Amino acid sequence: MSVTDSVRAPGRELGEGLLPGLWRASAARSSVELKSFFRNRQSLVFTLFFPVILLVVFGAIFDGKVEGTQTDFRQVFMAGIVAAGVMSTAFSGLAINIAIERDTGLISRLAMTPMPKPAYFIGKLVKVVVTTVVETVLLLGIAVTAFGLPWPSTAHRWFTLAWVLTLGTVTCALAGIAYSAAIPNSRSAAAIVTPVFMVLQFISGVFYPFHQLPEWMQNTAALFPVKWMAQGFRSVFLPDGFTVVEPAGGWELGRIALVLGLWAVGGLLLTALTFGWRNARVR
After folding, report:
1. Which of 5, 16, 25, 61 could be cross-linked to 1 through a Cys-Cys bond (beta carbons 3.0 to 4.6 Å apart)?
2. Average pLDDT, integer, range 223-235
3. What residues make up the domain containing 262?
4. What sections of the protein cross the membrane (predicted)?
5. What is the 3-state secondary structure (H, E, C) of 18-52?
């Protein structure tokens, strides 16, 4: 090998080998994540089907128009439950899953392999995106066929559905990864994650029209992404006349994008600062 070749070889490896290696590792991790999720009955029931069960139960109970509008209350609830479904798969399920993998030593063992570390997070994100899309399709299918929720009526509403779902999923996933640092072990994971998930649903307008909640609840909910996702989905499925009871008098799509984007950046920074590879216990 010439001197020139020996100097250029490292550059070739970095330029030509790094990205293909990352893509291969990411594809392999994504496949493992998806197979593990769909083969785990507990994950399917408590993460994927829990919002579906809530939709069926509460959709059968709720009836009547929202006060001050001509909108069926079930349509408002079903727009909110889609946001809850995103949080269920992207935040709750992911945070608990990472806590289990940390407690069992899987994360520590993966850190000692040649796998590029970003592949671990890409695999998690692919799993979350796929499961969120599957759950959203299930929720919308049931809502439309069983309870009369209208499909988005314009191309603009379909586009809004796509970007709110995508940005909301990424935001909740990054928040879930960051929040997993607060979970000391797998035994306490559900107890630490579930209350946050349930409280945010109640104060974010999922089970009750947001404008009818106490002002302090509205202000608290506005600090978190679930409220903004629910508002974005309301803009997709509800008539524009419903904005008369929205606290701001409009859908605020720009603010929704801004808040979700800030949460995504914050979750990414917190993950970079708090996620541990070497400190997980190997059993």
Report:
1. 5
2. 95
3. 3-274
4. 44-62, 77-100, 121-149, 161-182, 189-210, 256-277
5. HHHHHHHHHHHHHHHHHHHHHCCHHHHHHHHCHHH
Separation between Cα atoms, residue 247 and residue 213, nearest integer Å: 10
The SS3 assignment for 36 reads helix
One-letter amino acid for residue 278 of the chain: R
| Tokens of residue 93, six digits | 């399920």
Let me know if residue 190 belongs to a domain. Answer: yes
Place of tokens 């506005």: 222
Tokens of residue 164, six digits: 């709110």
Q: Return the amino acid letter for 176.
A: G
Residue given tokens 């979970």 in the structure block: 183
Q: Does any domain span residue 236?
A: yes
**213 within some domain:** yes
Cβ(25)–Cβ(115) below 8 Å: yes
Question: What is the domain count for the chain?
Answer: 1
Q: Which tokens hold the place of 142? A: 């049931």
Residue 280 lies in a domain: no
For residue 65, report the phi and psi dihedrals to the nearest 5 degrees.
-95, 150
- Residue identified by tokens 């993966």 is 110
Q: How confident is the model at residue 283 (pLDDT cuts 50, 70, 90)?
A: very low
Percent of the chain with pLDDT over 70: 91
- What's the rounded Cα separation, in Å, for the pair 85 and 53? 11
Q: Which two tokens stand for residue 239?
A: 């008539």
Cα R_g (the chain), whole angstroms: 21
Residue 106: exposure state from Cβ atoms within 10 A (0-12, 13-18, ≥19): middle
Distance spanning both ends of the chain, measured CA to CA: 46
